[in-house]
Amino acid sequence: MRASSAAPTLLIVDDEPANLQVLKHLLAPEYRVRAANSGANALRAARVEAPDLVLLDVMMPDMDGYAVLKQLRAEDATRDVPVVFLTALADAGDEEFGLSLGAADYIAKPIKPAVLLARVRTQLQAKQGRDWLRDQNAALEAEVKRRIAENDLTQLVSIRALAHLAETRDPETGNHILRTQNYVRTLALRLRGHGRFAAFLSERNIDLLTRSAPLHDIGKVGIPDAILQKPGKLTPEEWAIMKTHTKLGSDAIERAEQDVAQPLAFLTLAKEIARWHHEKWDGSGYPDGLAGEAIPISARLMALADVFDAMISPRVYKPPMPFEQAREHIAAERGRHFDPDVVDAFLAAYDDFHAIATRYRDAGLTA
To answer: Are 135 and 237 part of one and the same domain?
Structure first.
């Protein structure tokens, strides 16, 4: 009686037809048996369909069993297939050499049927266990990746929702958060190889900066509509209230940080950006009058991105500024409002800024 097609597949390899016939007779009742009479034929058969187990003679002409095993181990499809040597070689050194190459077992000829069947069964059970463990690990890795992707998406959606909450208080900003987010990423990518920025602008921090940027104006939810949407110039008192949006935003993020068990890097950067994106390189900004390197890199990048976008966008209190004029203004503020190297990165990437602004254009945005 032959084994069913669902039975494990064995590849038996021997240059002696009589030996192949004996092995087939012993194994066929329980397993699907395929035979090869040379090393080259064995490799061809294994490439067509990887077996569950190989029973391999050592002493064969042209390509011996050791060479076949090395080739099986070198190919992805057969790397993990267990190989059992069948050989008349009785020297312990031969067995040690075969095992050192990766053989799973070593059975001496003449074959004892009970021993052969027991060893085959043991190797197949071990392979089944390894395959199950591999599949479980693969499933676990896939689930971990799915959960990470789901968490990332949840985080991104939450950030965008909070940013849009601020946007509803200041409806003319439109796609401002998308444009500034992309401006910040563009600057970070330009500066990641710069000596002053390279240590901070790792791939991970660039990703975190991009995620955090939309929260820069979250504090505007705490500013009264009469001030936030006033069409004319703000009074000194109103301007003092408007400037509090930076601290309101950073304080809100800090309170959110206190609700989690461990610090989240993107919240740390979001807090920096919210609080200090209106600081100026020369120290004349707000809310804390920071200057130069005391301003976090995250806030320095956001400062330029925010100002450029504000200039080219229409507001209730002003018309949009032409792109080239905004570019000239940014260049003129090099070393005063903005970090000189950040301005240089902006000028080098100006075409990218123009493309981003065009892609996420709002009605009324300047050309």
So the answer is: no
Encoding tokens for residue 78? 């057969």
pTM above 0.70, yes or no: no
**Does residue 32 sit in helix, strand or coil?**
strand
Coil, helix or strand at residue 314: coil
Nearest by Cα to 83 from 52, 47, 45: 52
Rounded to whole angstroms, the Cα distance separating 86 from 111 reads 8
Nearest of 31, 57, 18, 50 to residue 117 by alpha carbon: 31
63: left (phi over 0), alpha (psi -120 to 50) or beta: beta
What is the C-alpha to C-alpha distance for residues 207 and 266, in angstroms, rounded to an integer?
Answer: 9
Return all residues near 60 (Cβ < 8 A) that are at least 6 apart.
Answer: 13, 14, 15, 38, 39, 68
CB atoms within 10 A of CB 6: 6
| DSSP strands (E only) in the chain | 9-13, 32-36, 53-57, 83-87, 105-108
> What confidence tens digit (pLDDT) does each residue in 45-89 have?
999 999 999 999 998 988 999 999 999 999 999 999 999 998 876
Residue 104 sits in which domain range? 9-140
Q: Are 348 and 190 in contact (CB under 8 A)?
A: yes
Distance CA 32, CA 109 (A): 22
Q: Which residues of 307-319 are buried (b: 16+ CB within 10 A; e: fewer)?
A: bbbbbbbbeeeee
Q: Is 27 domain-assigned? A: yes
| Residue 146 is assigned to a structural domain of this protein | no
What are the phi and psi torsion angles at 291 (to 5°)?
-135, 150
| Cα dihedral across residues 96, 102, 104, 106: positive or negative | negative
Describe the strand order of the beta sheet including 53-57 as a list of residue ranges: 32-36, 9-13, 53-57, 83-87, 105-108
pLDDT of residue 174 exceeding 90, the answer is no
User: Which tokens go with 172?
Assistant: 């003319």
Give the amino acid at 290.
L
Residues 336 and 272 in one domain: yes
Alpha carbons within 13 A on the beta-carbon side of 155: 16
